[in-house]
Amino acid sequence: MNLELFSCSGGLAEGLRRAGILIDLSVDFDEDACASYERNLGTRPVLLDVRDLARMVRAGWRIGPVDLLVADPPCTPWSRAGKRQGRADERDMIDATIELIRLLRPHAYLIANVPGLDDGPNWPIVQKTIGSLDEVDRAILDPGGSICFTAKKPSPDTARHDELISRLDQISAQLAALRP
Hints:
six-stranded parallel β-sheet, alpha/beta, Rossmann fold, 180 residues, globular, 6 helices
């Protein structure tokens, strides 16, 4: 089972598909994003707040073994273009993402990054939250050794798109090597 959290319009899932990795279940709480994802990829994400998914899992509900958990939490709380309120922003989902990784114990996970998440005032928070996943020992590291990928989603910028596809190709090879 490959699970995608915060699926938005499907850009990350499309990149994964091009790298040979198919998403089995995607989740997003925004109805417009779910409709866009369906138009782009032909399947509709489950309309669900990830915090509700975490509550369900804490209560004992399981979706089965998770091979890959892909999360692209909202960037607004962390982006250099925003107010950078981080965890104080009600839209922040870093903690919910980390909790689901801990609860579901995926074979591997990928957390997308936004410029600004891993710099200056945010770095201690990244270390405390995402960095704490080192103990889970399921991280796929990019060539630079970062858990957060700097290429967020395919974009009109061809160089960044190609960089992401290249990284996802490497992830696909790493996942294949991890499978029994």
